Amino acid sequence: MINCAGPEGSIPVNVQSDNRGLYDVKFTPQQTGDYRTSVTFNGEHIPSSPYNLYVADSTKIVAHGKGLYQVCTRDTSEFFITVKGAGQGNLEVRGEGPHGRFPVEVKQSPSDHDKYIASYTLFDAGDYRIYVNYAGQPVPGSPFLVKVSNEFSFFFHHYSNLSN
After folding, report:
1. What angle do CA 115, 121, 123 make, to 5 degrees?
2. Parent domain of 25
3. Which pLDDT score is estimated for 154?
4. Are residues 74 and 150 in the same domain?
């Protein structure tokens, strides 16, 4: 028998056998929080039962700011990540570009514990990606495609568009 309880009580569990003595167990948490799953056989808990799991919701994360889309080389670029309502989870941010990974510094806002400020500096023009994961899952929009331009060509492009 398999039972699962979450923050609002018992939740439905779907169990299917694969005819080899293995079982596929599925349940869908409806909110963030602690969940406890008990697995018993002949009235006794199997080894390691009950299982405790914390569920976070990466879809509630909002990443925004110019640093996620278009930046100039040699400028410190930044963007913001808001985690309000997502539950507890690890925030992971990494960057990848034409020459491999690049560092992205992430700091918690001193005035708002649900907000983070991410910053980085790139020195070569090209297409880069920034991956933002929360509780091991990608947040909406991740990976973000960042176009990096040399400062001169970036400003020339804007100037030439203004003169047309």
Report:
1. 160
2. 2-55
3. 47
4. yes
Structure tokens at 92: 């992971």
Number of domain units in the chain: 2
Task: With residue 155 as reference, give the H or E element that holds it.
Answer: helix 151-162
**Is 21 in a helix, a strand, or coil?**
coil
The answer to whether residues 77 and 158 belong to one domain is: yes
What are 133-156's pLDDT values in tens digits?
A: 998 899 999 999 999 998 655 444
**Mean pLDDT calculated for residue range 107-136:** 95
Mean pLDDT of the chain: 88
Amino acid identity, position 19: N
Residue 162 phi/psi, 5-degree rounding, is -70, -30
Tens digit of each residue's pLDDT (9 = 90 or more) over 10-58: 889 888 888 887 888 888 888 888 889 898 888 898 888 898 888 888 8
Tokens in use for 120?
Answer: 């980085």
CATH, residue 25: 2.60.40.10
CA dist 156 → 31, 69, 94, 100, 152 (Å): 49, 18, 30, 28, 6
The token duo for 38 is: 């008990």
* Sheet of strand 62-64, all strands in order from the earlier edge strand to the far edge: 62-64, 76-82, 115-121, 105-108
